[in-house]
Every structure is written in C-alpha cells, then in structure tokens.
Amino acid sequence: MAIRSRIEGRSWSATQGDSSFSNDEQGWVRVTGDGDPLDVRSVRLRSSDASGPGSAPPGLEETTAYPRPGQETITQRQYDPRTGRTTTERGAGEVPRLVFRAHDLLQEARRGAADVRLDGERTIDGRRTYRLVVRDPADGAPIPGIEDRTELYVDAETYAAVEYRHVSQGRTQPGGVPFRSELVQRVLDYEELPDTAGNRELLELRGPREPARPQP
C-alpha cells in the first residue's frame, strides 16, 4: 500500500503557549495476509518548520523491518539529509498509522469489536465518510485527568481512509498544567500495489538515490 498524506499538529499549554507544524509525507506498508505489518517506509516530502516540535527536514527517510521467522527484533533505519548519514536501531521502529487499516477497522466496528466503534457519519471535503472512534491497545491504562480520543474517517463508498485525528487534553502528570494537542493526518492519495519484487524496492532505504517507481 502507498499513501501520500499531509500531517498537521497543533498544541497548546498554559506554560508554553501555542505551536504547530505541517508535513507532507509519502508512506509505504507491506503486510501479511492477516494484515500485520512486514515492512514500513516513510519519506518526508515537505515541512513547514524543519526545526519545530514534531517536524523534520524534507528528505528524512525511515524504514522499519518487522521480525520474520528466526528473527527476534524489529529494526529501524534512518537517513538524515542534513548529515548524509544512515543510522540503524534495533528493538524500535515505526508503527504504521491506522489509515493503512481503514477497511479492516470498519469491518471490526460493524462486527461490534471492543476496540473500535462506528459513530455516525461526517462530510469531509465533499466526501461522505464513516466516523470510527478507535481505542489503541498500545495506549495502556487511562491516565487520570487526561482525555485521549482517536478518530478515523473512512470513505463510505470505497472504504479508503480519508482522515485520522488524535486529540489529547487535560492536565500534565505531574505538574497539573492545562494542555491540549491535536494531530491530523489527511490522505491526499492512496494506491494498492501488487506484491512484486519491483514494488518491494519501494520499501528499501534509498537515501540520496533516485526514488523507485511503483510497478503496475
């Protein structure tokens, strides 16, 4: 799967005031037949502020390889265009956002799954969408005084992801400082790709080389 998206973040706290950023990103994900990720790659295309919180320079590239049989750890590689260096870290990696699971999550909501709830409809940029409220199992137990909400909007006709939104607000623990943060990912372009040797090259860290092209 290939998704080009715009990611915007806004935050406010009583001590730090307002801040925001906007990034355009291209992402690829290869999954198993059960929908579990095998490989993830993302490339930063544009950044409103390469030094701001949550932002990064254009050309920043990350790949994640999930464990295969006989392998024990997840492996992440990153190419930083500011230094021209490639680094490798084991035991950590990028988790693909829920936009890559839009269709599956909609089906789970219709079956009454505990982690996702179908909560009406909304029109976004002229498109009729289903609103899903998602509980991320990685979030752990709720923190007193902090409200977290994750929403995913799915096209009512194609079942493709349209928008992902996460909101967190309340008071910091400890400190009790009021805050609110919001992260929005809007899908600009989505494409299903066949699992070919050529398309697997799209999942490889490329650095300053010419980008690989999808194969039909």
Overview of the structural elements:
With 216 residues, the protein is mainly β. Strand 7 and strand 8 form a beta hairpin. Strands 6-5-4-3-2-1-11-10-9-8-7 form an eleven-stranded antiparallel beta sheet, with helices on one face. The protein contains two helices and eleven strands, in the order E-E-E-E-E-E-H-E-E-E-E-E-H.
Query: What is the general shape?
Result: globular
Order of secondary-structure elements: EEEEEEHEEEEEH
CATH topology: outer membrane lipoprotein receptor (LolB), chain A
Question: Residue-averaged pLDDT, rounded?
Answer: 87
In the sheet with the most strands, the strands line up as 6-5-4-3-2-1-11-10-9-8-7
Instruction: Return residue spans where pLDDT drops below 50 for at least 5 consecutive residues.
Output: none
Q: What fraction of the residues are assigned to beta strands by DSSP?
A: over 45%
What Rg, in angstroms, do the CA atoms define?
18 Å
Q: Return the CATH architecture.
A: Clam
The termini sit apart by 12 Å
Number of domain modules: 1
Please render the helix and strand layout as text:
Blueprint: E1 2-13, E2 17-31, E3 37-47, E4 61-65, E5 75-80, E6 85-90, H1 102-111, E7 116-124, E8 127-134, E9 146-155, E10 161-171, E11 178-191, H2 197-200
Antiparallel strand pairs: 1-2, 1-11, 2-3, 3-4, 4-5, 5-6, 7-8, 8-9, 9-10, 10-11
